[in-house]
Sequence to fold (291 residues):
Amino acid sequence: MHRYEPRANETVEDFARHDGTSVLPARPYRPQDKAKVESAVQVVERWILMRLRRQHFHCIDDVNEAIEPLLKQLNDKPFQKLPGSRASSFAALDAPALQALPAQPWEWASYKTVRVHIDHHVEIDGHRYSVPQNLVGLQLETRITAHGVELLHRGQRVAAHARNAHRGGFTTVPDHLSAAHRAHLEWTPQRLIHWGNGIGPMTSHIVRRLLKERRHPEHGYRACLGLLSLAKKYSKPRLEAACVIAAELGTTRYSHVRDILANDRDRQAATQAPEWNSPQHAHVRGPDYYQ
Fold:
């Protein structure tokens, strides 16, 4: 932390924003950065704490009751080199600028930098929260409280959600998504399986596997849609043949099925010559001939 550009930590700055005040931070272990504060501490120690050092207190209320008259005497005590006192200076300068406390109490928050995934969500403690689609790939600052998640870009709030502790879950605002991603929300496992049945039994099998192997069916929607869309590019029969090969290889990944089609492996399997067998007729010597 530089002497001329000290910076308060994020929690202190958040508290100051909430209460509409400002903080003039000082470097740690540098009392010279806050000389007036150090001087005020010495005055309180000399005029209040020293006078109470021999007393015994049993609760905080007793301490406050003993401090109150001594504090009033200290604040009413005239300055040595300036006119007035601490009390009169407060009444003239500070009191007119005081504002009411915010209606909502300040809530402690933690901060974290996250990157927006391609699906328009950021991940916080295992749960994903949506942000506007134009922020994909950018880094955002998150303010996380016990009840909410606030996402900021360059100091401006771009999204806010209620906190959700469901790991692997999604909290999504449809307006944050592109038209294509909003369409994903309308799909159900039954619709995807029905589409797969229209292509072939092995395609339907792969779709079911994709949905089953994900922690939540929504996680497999994109892979299923990608798989099924291959029929438009390569035809339904070729996609079904590629799914047969993928199943024989023990894979259900969209990228593997796509590569099978891109490399024409489904056609190679279909045109592969069958194993040749010698015909049986009278002119062929059997193995006994050579004994």
In short: The chain has a mean pLDDT of 86. Strands lie at 110-115, 121-124, 127-130, 139-144, 148-153, 156-162, 170-171.
